[in-house]
Amino acid sequence: MAIIEIHLPKSVAKALRLPANNPERQQIRVLKKLLRKARFTEFGQYYRFDEILLCKNPAKKFKMNVPTFNYSSIYKQWWHKTLDGVPDVCWPGKIKYYALSSGTSEAASKYIPITNDLLAGNKMVMIKQLLTLRNYENIPYSSISKGWLTLGGSTDLQKNLGYYAGDLSGITTKKMPLWFQPFYKPGKKIAKERDWNKKLEEIVEKAPEWDIGFVVGVPAWIQMCMEMVIKKYNLNNIHEMWPNLAFFVHGGVSFEPYKKGFEKLLGKPITYIETYLASEGFIAYQDRQNAKGMRLVTNEHIFLEFVPFNDSNFDSNGDMVENPETFMVHEVEEGKEYALLISTNAGTWRYLIGDTIKFVDKSRCEIIITGRTKHFLSLVGEHLSVDNMNKAIQLTSEQLNICIPEFTVAGIPYNNFFAHHWYIACDEQIDPQLLKQHIDENLKILNDDYAVERKSALKEVFVDVLSEQQFLDFMQLKGKLGGQHKFPRVLKGNMLKDWEEYLHQQPAHSK
Question: pTM higher than 0.90 for the full model?
Answer without folding.
Answer: no
